[in-house]
């Protein structure tokens, strides 16, 4: 996976912090009770809920890499409509489509 430029910049500026962050991620993966595809879809849903375009892009890519299909990813977004509202869902789907085209 290619890291975005801002992430690379943070690694250079704050190496200890970014190392700790990566170690946290590794620990979560090592102790996970969910498969990678499910984990990425859950994280995608959370990203949609908080309205984070970058996180939606990232977790869409990761979900695809873990075997999720485009329709599953879109459905994750659609399933949130009664919780986060249509405007946030529409925005999230547009960000997903940046990746899956």
UniProtKB/TrEMBL annotation:
Molecular function GO terms recorded: peroxiredoxin activity
Residue ranges constituting the Carboxymuconolactone decarboxylase-like domain according to the UniProt record: 15-97
Pfam family, one: CMD
SUPFAM superfamilies: AhpD-like (SSF69118)
TM segment ranges: none
InterPro entries: AhpD-like, CMD-like
Protein name in UniProt: Carboxymuconolactone decarboxylase domain protein
Organism: Desulfurella amilsii
Taxonomic lineage: Bacteria, Pseudomonadati, Campylobacterota, Desulfurellia, Desulfurellales
């Amino acid at each position: 996976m290619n890291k975005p430029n801002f992430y690379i910049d943070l690694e250079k500026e704050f190496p200890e912090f970014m190392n700790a962050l990566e170690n946290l991620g590794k620990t979560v993966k090592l102790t996970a009770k969910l498969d990678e595809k499910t984990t990425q879809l859950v994280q995608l849903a959370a990203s949609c809920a908080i309205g984070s375009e970058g996180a939606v892009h990232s977790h869409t890519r990761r979900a695809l890499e873990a075997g999720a299909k485009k329709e599953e990813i879109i459905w994750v977004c659609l399933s949130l409509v009664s919780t986060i509202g249509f405007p946030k869902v529409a925005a999230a789907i547009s960000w997903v489509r940046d990746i899956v085209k």
